């Protein structure tokens, strides 16, 4: 819609595409490539593509479809609400949700055929939902092998297994899986992974003695999928890797055979020549050191860029410039140097904050270093105000759509 300011009237004709102003471009072929790479590493175990948190900011529904097309056998999310959104989109693959509160809608999960992770306290609520729905619940029992978050402790594990099997004998649930989560698999030399693996094997033995015959046993995350085949069991839960990012310090995505799927880009919104000593942004922590051209980049912390990440890289016209001065809510500044009148020509030029890095440009890892955080956070925090643009989306005839546009984050 376009809204003429002078008349207050509006036209139904399409206006300029907001994706041209700023967008997170998601390459679904990169998602497919990464799933195939992880499937090869995990084989003969199957792959669960973890699409929680709107697929780490990439768009849960398109990413889930691409992952299944590439061979993922399962999908994983944190919340039941996330699982129900996938079901509402027509995705019927095996699907596990594992993080709950006392207000979680277990009845809706059972009705939709969503598998439910259970650490202990949820069991009676899950059974009540199964009775209400007149349908057995599908449950994955979780044991805490050392991470210290959810999951039954080893001391209470046998009780949980026994109670679950009693309910299974009554036809109220099926123990589909047994799982745990690793704490330090991204640091391959740490001994705690061996300790967790031993604890998981002990928990499996207890469950087997109680008569549990699970469809899947799963422990490995992305780093363990790539570095610890002894943790693969029947299924690996791949999160970060399917988005093409490396979980290891000192190893790049390319070295692992992965392709980053998200490119965050916008356009230069102003270029102006300023004198020596010009202050930049709130607090005036940066001043130019000579005549210079400042370029305004129209994204900020409301778009998900960490406010702390001054120095983060932005690539414009084949050159990479660090952000100078404080990052504001909606904008940031790069210093192009003494370009003279030529700097004005960059008005409207594409500005890439991060992408694949294939052309030597910046990556999510570069922004993570600037912000003192991890690449997981950089992609996941890109806000719904940044439209997602999907490329290489497969159509129902088996071809490819060049691009699919989605405003305000992913469905």
From TrEMBL:
Enzyme class: isomerase
UniProt keyword Isomerase present: yes
Domain Alanine racemase C-terminal: 261-391
GO cellular component, one term: cytosol
Region (Disordered) residue spans: 1-21, 392-411
Modified residues (N6-(pyridoxal phosphate)lysine): 52
Keywords (A to Z) from UniProt: Isomerase, Pyridoxal phosphate
Family: Belongs to the alanine racemase family.
Protein name: Alanine racemase
Organism listed in the record: Arthrobacter nitrophenolicus
């Amino acid at each position: 819609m376009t809204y003429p300011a002078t008349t207050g009237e509006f036209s139904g004709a399409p206006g300029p595409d907001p994706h041209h102003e700023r967008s997170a471009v998601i390459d679904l072929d990169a998602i497919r490539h990464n799933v195939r790479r992880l499937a090869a590493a995990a084989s003969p175990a199957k792959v669960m593509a973890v699409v929680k948190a709107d697929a780490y900011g990439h768009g849960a529904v398109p990413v889930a479809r691409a992952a299944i097309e590439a061979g993922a056998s399962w999908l994983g999310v944190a919340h039941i609400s996330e699982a129900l959104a996938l079901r509402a989109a027509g995705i019927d693959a095996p699907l596990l949700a594992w993080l709950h509160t006392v207000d979680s809608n277990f009845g809706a999960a059972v009705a939709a055929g969503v598998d439910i992770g259970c650490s202990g306290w949820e069991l009676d609520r899950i059974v009540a939902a199964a009775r209400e729905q007149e349908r057995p619940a599908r449950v994955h029992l979780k044991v805490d092998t050392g991470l210290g978050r959810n999951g039954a402790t080893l001391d209470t594990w046998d009780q949980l297994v026994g109670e679950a099997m009693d309910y299974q004998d009554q036809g109220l649930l099926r123990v589909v899986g047994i799982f745990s989560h690793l704490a330090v698999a991204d640091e391959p030399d740490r001994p705690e992974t061996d300790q967790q693996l031993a604890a998981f094997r002990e928990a499996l033995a207890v469950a087997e003695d109680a008569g549990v015959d699970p469809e899947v046993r799963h422990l490995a995350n992305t780093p363990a999928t790539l570095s610890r085949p002894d943790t693969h069991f029947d299924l690996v839960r791949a999160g970060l890797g399917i988005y093409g990012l490396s979980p290891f310090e000192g190893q790049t995505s390319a070295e692992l055979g992965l392709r980053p799927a998200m490119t965050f880009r916008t356009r230069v919104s102003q270029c102006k020549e300023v004198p020596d000593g010009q202050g930049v942004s709130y607090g005036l922590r940066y001043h130019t050191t000579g005549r210079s051209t400042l370029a305004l980049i129209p994204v900020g912390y409301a778009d998900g860029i960490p406010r702390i990440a001054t120095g983060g890289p932005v690539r414009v016209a084949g050159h990479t410039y660090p952000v100078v001065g404080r990052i504001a809510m909606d904008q940031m500044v790069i210093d192009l140097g003494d370009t003279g009148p030529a700097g004005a020509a960059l008005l409207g030029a594409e500005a890439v904050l991060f992408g694949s890095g294939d052309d030597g440009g910046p990556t999510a890892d570069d922004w993570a270093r600037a912000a003192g955080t991890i690449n997981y956070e950089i992609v996941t925090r890109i806000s719904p105000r940044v439209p997602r643009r999907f490329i290489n989306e497969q159509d129902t005839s088996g071809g490819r759509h060049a691009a699919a546009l989605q405003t305000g984050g992913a469905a």
